[in-house]
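In this supplementary section we document a worked example of the pipeline. Step one takes a protein sequence of length 216 as its only input; no multiple sequence alignment statistics are reported here. Step two produces a three-dimensional model, which step three serialises into structure tokens for compact storage. The input and output of this example are shown verbatim.
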Amino acid sequence: MSQTPPNPNAPKHVPEPDTNLGALFYGGGNDDQVIQGHKYDGIREYDNPMPGWWVWLFVLCVLFAPAYVLGMYVFDWIPTYEENLAASQADLTDTRMAYAEANPGFQTDARALDGYLGDATLIAAGQGLFMANCAACHGQQGEGLIGPNLTDTYAIHGGEPDAIFRVITEGVIEKGMTPRGALLPDEERAGVMAYVKSIEGTNVPGGKAPEGDPVN
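The serialised model returned by step three reads:
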């Protein structure tokens, strides 16, 4: 019994469209449909619709593009990159200022350093730091060894609190004194300065001969 061969140009049966929400959104629910007249070397081309979610996303992008251009360049609804950057920097500055006001840092200007002289707590802390960092060259009592005597009333680089603090911070490289600016925080260096000033003029026995100029 012979059978009639299928006609390759005949379209597939198309069922009634599926109207449920999932089919509309995902683009499914229908069988493939052959596009008439699109047959090459026995290969047929099908008309498969894009998924619904992709189509709606494309529509939203198309609608968003002119709104964005108008908002950015015509009506100034959307801030530019420069405006966003300026606003962010202003916010950062405000935050830093608020933090600085709420958490004042340790001051090391000349007036502040003068105020630390005689601070017993700072001097006691500075003495311990002096023993750990300075006594090897200046002696346990500051009498001077490789470094100068700190208990007389002479100074090579200045005897004012800010001058002593600067020497502690920057060191004296040519004479082998290591800078302490990167090793000790401001408050600790100020403590060492306060201690050095507290032993000035004590002239401990066995001290090294004076060097430098008299301290006013």
